[in-house]
């Protein structure tokens, strides 16, 4: 696939965030997100009709079928365990791309787990990212993580 945005990312938060979405396709994500409660055949037809590279569609369809069969978690565990072996950078990137799609499907076509991870990083920028992923429109934000027994503060839009 050549170079990806992750190869050019600067900053820990940007690299982390791009890593969570690498391998995903916005159009396919949207098709699944908006019709998640529908049956498998309907979802597969939406994926087939979406504009995306055939290999990306195939990957989404494969993992969607496994999710609906109840075996996607096992596939995700297998991929995660394969990361501990000796891998080239390209092999590792490929596994992480597939893992990203699996994670999205296991979360019910949701980015909620990514949002929660961002919130848990306890930095102002990560908090902003997490709130946006939760669907909040953040115009103004003040955040202090607290620590050493003191409570943190978060003030959003006012």
Task: List its salient traits.
158 residues, mainly alpha, two-stranded antiparallel ribbon, 9 helices, 2 strands, globular
Radius of gyration: 18 Å
Question: pLDDT average, as an integer?
Answer: 88
% residues in beta strands: 5-15%
Instruction: Give the biggest sheet.
Output: 2 strands, antiparallel
CA-based shape: globular
How many individual helices? Answer: 9
The run of helices and strands is HHHHHHHHHEE
Lateral arrangement of strands in the main beta sheet: 1-2
- The poorly predicted ranges are none
The count of β-strands is 2
Helix content percent band? 55-70%
What structural class is derived from the secondary structure elements? mainly alpha
Question: Between the first and last Cα atoms, what is the distance in angstroms?
Answer: 44 Å
SSE map:
Layout: H1 5-8, H2 12-21, H3 26-34, H4 40-49, H5 54-69, H6 72-82, H7 89-106, H8 112-120, H9 124-133, E1 141-144, E2 153-156
Antiparallel strand pairs: 1-2
Helix pairs in contact: 4-5, 5-7, 6-7, 8-9
Verbal overview:
The chain contains nine helices and two strands. The chain has helices at 5-8, 12-21, 26-34, 40-49, 54-69, 72-82, 89-106, 112-120, 124-133; strands at 141-144, 153-156. With 158 residues, the protein is mainly α. A two-stranded antiparallel ribbon has the order 1-2. 61% of the residues lie in helices and 5% in strands.
């Amino acid at each position: 696939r050549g170079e990806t945005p992750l190869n050019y990312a600067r900053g820990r938060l940007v690299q982390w965030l791009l890593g969570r979405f690498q391998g995903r396709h916005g159009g396919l994500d949207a098709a699944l997100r908006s019709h998640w409660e529908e049956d498998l055949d309907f979802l597969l037809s939406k994926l087939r009709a979406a504009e995306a590279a055939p290999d990306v569609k195939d990957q989404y369809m494969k993992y969607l079928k496994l999710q609906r069969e109840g075996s996607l978690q096992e596939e995700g565990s297998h991929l995660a365990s394969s990361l501990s072996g000796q891998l080239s950078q390209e092999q590792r990137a490929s596994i992480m791309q597939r893992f990203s799609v699996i994670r999205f499907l296991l979360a019910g076509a949701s980015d909620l787990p990514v949002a929660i991870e961002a919130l848990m990083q306890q930095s102002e920028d990560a908090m902003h990212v997490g709130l946006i992923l939760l669907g909040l429109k953040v115009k103004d934000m003040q955040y202090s993580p607290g620590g050493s027994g003191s409570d943190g503060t978060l003030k959003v839009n006012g």
